[in-house]
């Protein structure tokens, strides 16, 4: 992307160093603060005007070296810039100058910029802790992508790197943190102190961070030495929660050592702090040396937490630590290459978890969760390329999505599998060494990987990164040979010639009984090819689902592979099931074929495979939800399919049981219960009653979500009220999230409106608004009520959501895409037509594309599915 295609700041001056002082923090209710920033500038051209970024700041004064004071301060709210005009030229180039700005800002409650998070203390807090209504507050920052400008005037673009020194005046009984270690503490006025921090390395503004509050920490050290020392690693929490940081702490020091080894560059800062933030728009943020997390992504309570959060914490910690090198040390040149940060950190995050916890079998989960989520978005016409043009940094939030993260990481997994992980990491290490403390592009990464592998990586990877979509490999059989053809896959099934112009490099990964040909390592680089001398007794393409594509087999072959599924890896099985379901949606195969395939899996014991079967079935049940006979048939099908495995695994957790068995139990019980399996429903109700009577051990923490969901689905208002009370009183870290998901299973219209009123009240944090609503959207009985509520209460809904644009985008994308009706598609389009959808317009287009695909699928397959269910005794 040419620089001229970007809306960027003028290039006459560039920042070298920022000295930032924060003071006069109003903690009694107004939440204003004062700031002073001194910016050392490299003046490249003589200039009278200096333009930089500022948003929701009030500049009091500005002057440059020599006492020149700005004669005019002009704000451009739309572009979030301020132009300072001086009476004469600042200096003659080339020259250094210092720009000093006094300003005022607000510690907002929007989870962006310098903001406050509300929480309920679990122990008596320090006296000075601020309150906001009935809650107490901690304060932290979130600057990616373009919100450093909310906290201090700055040159807020990723390639305008500089060094930073921060000082902040806070109450004496609180703790302040920043990217670097504390340098000095001085007593200030009125029971306050000024905490100043060491100078940072050269870095981008979006990685600057600070925080303060009533904090405490647990500490450990890296086992490797760095400059002769073991680096201190700390997890900070508000008072009373620090012990829940120990699992993240243990992961953190091990992962830092692992990444330092495989990247061949030592972690470059003298400390690593992880901070649990009570209100957070994303999972976490990779600020250099001070990584911030939402609580459920960094804290884990061995007694009360659902074990699934262990994997989440391990992965999110690894993902953010990967950024310390890939993103922080070497940063993308501009936001169009966001995937360089996120796609790589996602892949290497999974790599680190696999290294630490091989028994978690995380690559199976990757294929089932990450790849399928990426496929889902990338099968829409409204998708975008992994590397996407970005004119304005304010557009970027919408591409923090499944394409940048999950298609990006899937492409890296495909490439690393092709050239070998060791060679791939050699190339990555060379890339990091060459560009450290600077900025780089996708082509820079391809060059390093080409050098390491001896292959032209750019040639075969560019279509995957710079073009939209992915292929389906259609297989045709003739005696002694197999024909394969690649074409664009769209879930709407209506591929036009103009949609299908990309020629992908498709690694075939052919698995057979004897592996007698070179086709296993070959790649399809033309539209069609014939493979000869293939062992036709058994074969499967895309071994372990290493390639980012779907495969469409002839119906008889799909049947054969299903019968011989024991020859497949779990990743192969996940891919087989997922492809069959997706091809049915697109009209390239049938739902009957999918049902015939999964019917064979009653004896399956793998968690990832069951997850894929169940999520595919739930999608089918959701799409055909308006046909009562069909829904009944699918429920019976589901119960008969999962009942043997559910009854075999039971309710009890054995001592020292492995992680995946526990997670499979939760999945099967939840599925069987929601489908109406009588034994499971009865047991869930008995356990819930015991739990409500004070016998908290009646429900294992990993089964709370399943049990709460089942009893609400079956039990009406009393169960709903009981789980709502649980939400209000739970002390479990993941308790609120669990309750919101369960509350979304309500079956009664009045309770839906009550739940939505509750969600949009002050009882539910903005960060969690989507959690319950996604559960309602997945609930076919009541999802129409959700859409009706959004329309009828638009002013209040939008006001609450719009505090944070990523929350808004996330909410609508995930709550409106489950419909399967052309009428509702038109209704959604009409409703948003006259709304200002800046920041989530791409998401609405994706919703409409998805609903259109669902509706076409429903019309095409509804009668056929009903006939199959009747013919096979499920109705």
From TrEMBL:
The keyword Protease applies. The record marks 405 as: Transition state stabilizer. Residues 247-464 form the Peptidase M1 membrane alanine aminopeptidase domain. Gene3D superfamilies: 1.25.50.20, 2.60.40.1910, Neutral Protease Domain 2, tricorn interacting facor f3 domain. Its cofactor is Zn(2+). Residues 538-853 form the ERAP1-like C-terminal domain. Signal peptide: none annotated. It comes from the Eukaryota. GO terms for molecular function: metalloaminopeptidase activity; peptide binding; zinc ion binding. GO terms for cellular component: cytoplasm; membrane. It is an enzyme of class 3 (hydrolase). The active site is at residue 320. GO terms for biological process: peptide catabolic process; proteolysis. The keyword Nucleotide-binding does not apply. This is Aminopeptidase.
